[in-house]
Queue: 2 jobs
Job 1
Amino acid sequence: MDTAILVNLFYIASSILFIVGLKMLGSPDTARRGNLLSSSGMLLAVTITLLDQNIIDYRYIAGALIAGSIVGYFAATKVKMTSMPEMVAIFNGFGGIASLLVGSAEYVSGTFDNPAFLGAIFLTVLIGGLTFSGSIIAYGKLSEVISGKPYLYKGQQFVNGILLIAILFVGINMLFIQGFISSEETLVLLIVLAFILGVLFVIPIGGADMPVVIALLNSFSGLAACAAGFVILNNVLIVAGALVGASGLILTNIMCKAMNRSLANVLFSGFGAAPDATSESTQEQGEVKPISAEDAYLILEAASSVLIVPGYGMAVAQAQHAVRELGELLEDNGAEVKYAIHPVAGRMPGHMNVLLAEANVSYDVLVEPDDVNPVMETVDVCIVIGANDVVNPDAKDNEGSPIYGMPIIEVDNAKTVFVSKRSMASGFAGIQNPLFFKSNTRMLFGDAKETVSTLVSEFKG
Amino acid sequence: METQIILLIFVLVLSIFLGVELITKVPSTLHTPLMSGANAISGITLVGAILSSGSSEIVTIILGTAAVFFASINVVGGYLVTNRMLGMFKKK
């Protein structure tokens, strides 16, 4: 049989492994096997590709494969779970730059008489480039090398418009004119413009909106691979890339829904940068009632149902292990303990779930807002640890609030609410939180980890 | 050539619909592993990278080899970190 046919049959097999693997990743019981299936699909695709008869020299391939695998191995096994958002961001970026390089390699060695081929290269380089630089900026924001604040400037729309026109011009030159500038110059210019686009795309977006950006960049890394599939006319790249593109878009959509905002609003509004948002909080706020950890313990000891609501503050304080210990002690004390996780809590989709899993919290005690809100009145104590905007009652009560309409965890309906918070500074979005002033709210000021540890030692002592 | 492109577009459209149907309802517990697992799959561009770096032209080899390097970080790192995370998800 012809080798090309055989190779393609194996590509179909690995596509099936990707599809089934991705399907299984959607359910907790099968997820790990799903990941293994999809990785065996990858191994199959790579092995079969290595048998290609057009490959002249294996030395570079082998060297790069081994070097990349070693870097990937150490990155994956050494990374702390709290650094997972940065890790996912940078991996997205590597996928993007790889596609960009594939597109460039084909462009350099290709012919220039086929607009479909050139169009595919244009898209591969553009999407790959913006995925790369966008992911690097996201990485910088998440690891706080650069400020996580949304960055807006005058004339932003104008600059973006100019950039898009420039990209369009380069594209037209690449596909149809060829000669306005040389082919090498066209490629370099396109790469530079794609990088700038990626930077300008992520830089205005604030830290709290990062879950959306990461999910979207994830989608882009798939689309870049998909476009590369059209460059080298390869089915498995198109199938796998499209699957990733679709799953990333679904996640993006879930994140946007969890904030009750459109994707365009997240990308272009620079949420939290608007200073006029705070001036609206002129209404009667009442008094903040602090409580000591010792007194909080007495209330917790009497509670028969406790709901823990973690947020980004728990990740920053690395308090997840202390939180798990507190949860176990409460259970031993006879209380029913659940954890309510808001989809956009933290800096990436599922951030809180990963941290709690690392601390050995069973995933069946993690509940979503829709499950817990109807029974909130029956909860004796809600402990909010480092979450702010996702528990802000203004989202349902105050039409003037910038987060009005966002689905929240309605902790204010619980009998008692403890809020562990560093200080009275407002949340990421710069919005006052009336929860702190409610009559059933008590503030536990201080570092989340220390506060929770004090509670734990009270239980033990 | 044209028929092949049409065929590939056909594959693309079906794959997108398949992807959307495949992952409509995901519990938030799995959002991160799904994302990093999908990200590892996007490293499939490694296949293209290998073909490029096996060429005989020097510039293509350089670009292709760099692509193999980045894509294999993406693939190996992505799958391992997903596996590590999923290993932590336990039910009592």
Job 2
Amino acid sequence: MNRNKRKGIFRAIASCTLSAMMLLSAGCGKPQNAGGPNGAQGGPPPKVAVITKQQLSFWDDVKKGAEDAGNELGVEVLYTVATSDNDYVSQVAAVKDAMLKGAKAIVIAPNSTTELNSVLGEAAEKGIKIVNINSKVSEFDQVETFIRSSDTDSGAVAARGVHKILEEKGADYEKLGKIAIIGHTASTAEERIQGFIGVLTSYASHNITRPKVTETDPDKLAEAEKAADEEYNSKLEKFSKNFIQGDRVAERDQARDEALKLLKTDGNGISIMFGTNTNTTLGICDAVSELKLDDKIIVVGFNSDEKELGYIRSGTLNGTVIQNPYVMGYVGVRYAQKLINGMTVPCDLDIGATFVNGSNMNDEYIQLLLYPDKN
Amino acid sequence: MAKGKSRFKGSGAYIFAGILIGIIYLVNTFLVEGIYWSNTSVSQTTSTVMNSLNKINGQLSEINNDSISIAAGLKTDMESIVKDTNNRYANIIDAEHAFESVEGLSDTAIRRYNYAKNIISTYKQRLDAMGTGAVTSGNYEEMGYILKQDIYPMQITASEMLTSTIDIVSADTGKIMRKNTIRSYLLMTMMMIVAILGEIAVWIFAKKAKKARLELEEREKSLAEVDAKLKTTRQKASDLAIINVLTGMKNRYALDNDINDRLESGRFQIAVFDMDNFRSINDTYGYDFGDEYLAAVAEKLKEEFSEVAEIYNITGNEFCFVFNKNISESQAMGIAQNIQRVMSSPYEVLNLAVQLPCSGAVYHYLPGDCLNVNSLLVKLDTAMRNAKMNGGNMISTVMNI
């Protein structure tokens, strides 16, 4: 029958098509192999807890960096910020919370050098990777990596900034007035002050001239040399006595009061003032502008709060040292992710510090540091 | 597909299915090609990106090494170092162009790269400043500060940003690849489903067609049965019309039908016989007996003569014999005598032996002798009546005039 014949043909076509499709679908498997081993594994993104010190623009930038890294690298960031830079209690709670939530790594800027050791040890026991940022925990050896801007070097950058200003002014280190320092209450302050004093003294040692020995008589030469050394050393000694330090303070108002105390009403012979963090810098600026000593006193400080930038623009603040909190947060999370994936990272990473003043604050690079989210 | 197919009947469905499969095949091919090319281009993009970023990173690290060597006093030939650095920076710029020429990178990757690029260009400025400042004046302390506090942190930050960019691009690539893998699996599954559905549809359709055909055959068969039944019934009815119920012989109408056509051109022998005085049987023994007697006679006649003649029972006890064509005139006469002998022999009916004489007439029919069967029978009957009037128990012949 005609129908039967047609059916047979159709059957043949259908089976041919079917086998062709089978072949084709077997071929589908090939391209996917070309993908290679790149890219994150499937499954939910790993959790990384980021715990910072206090509610300041600096830590906001750390948060931004951490969140950017989280988004870009496929990591879920659990962010916690403590209430002040000595509030380790809420940081202990945050570490415990991170353990509960199943974080694979903890990125922490500790508010205490030792108080967090036991809880961090507990976390490390569970295989959670500890990434230490900003300031170091001591007597604790389970930190995988330490990421920060060296505070000694940051103090040194401040000193280099001061030196450059003095150089531009043609100032004489010998005739320099007092150098007043107001530090904040955290451990980082001491390192910054140490770096600042060390490098500024070093500059002084190069710039304070040793008296020239004009003696021609060889017998008297040694004596003359000695006298010159002594004079030079006494000059350096005198310079080192220029450094005066106020009490360590935490708040801006306290810093202002401390600065006013040092400055008295007429400046009290102070030519340089150095604040070691945002609040001390702002306090110094408040006092200097209140006494209208803006032109007489060189003020250098730390960090890039919008108010500090305002003081730079107004000329009260001659310069400020900025670290790179954004990169600190970013690399913190990045290293955490690398550690989770079993890769090695450097034990210690110094991400540097930069001196910002009125003339470079609009540079592209400085803008990137000041406003990381504008990038 | 299955629905669409079953909606169509006949060859349309096959053509439709063929076209559909063709389209699916084509779509499948294009999709597979698409996935393949997407993967290929992603691989190319990734390798360009990786190469350029790794190159930047490598050159940066070499520049850094040179800077450290200067600070450490390991290298002193400033001219060659500056030349090397410039060459390396030129390589960086080339690699940057290569990276920037890549299209279709994600915003995050580009953002991270721009961060790195920004740092690198500032790094170069600082490096140049160091070259014209501290290096020229031989101020190693200052050089140390710049390297430790500015240049080195910048280089490692840039490096981190570059490797992050690589990771982002890798992750993006992985995502696209995974998406493509999922797409190809989906496609495979879809094709399998389509194929299976198609097969099922074909199977169902074939089954349905078979069922329909069987139904049709069934109907044809029953129709044929009905037809056959009808024919039998009709046959019976017509048989009844031409057969004498009592003797089972054909009747007058049958004779009419059978020989009417032969009258004009036929040439045959025909004879009629009946019992002389059959009425006496009916009168003596009753009609039932007469009927039985007739049946017995008819049975005997059929037995003896149905091979040489067609026998008709044209009226009550009158039988007509149309002899076969091969029977000659003289043979017919002989057979007629036999018929007379058989008919007039005794028959036992209801335990009674009865014997009746009979008379007959034989007619050698020639073409055109009669106009119709009726006149033929009249001729025969007349001849037979003559025989009976002459005492019966004899055979007369129809005279051809």
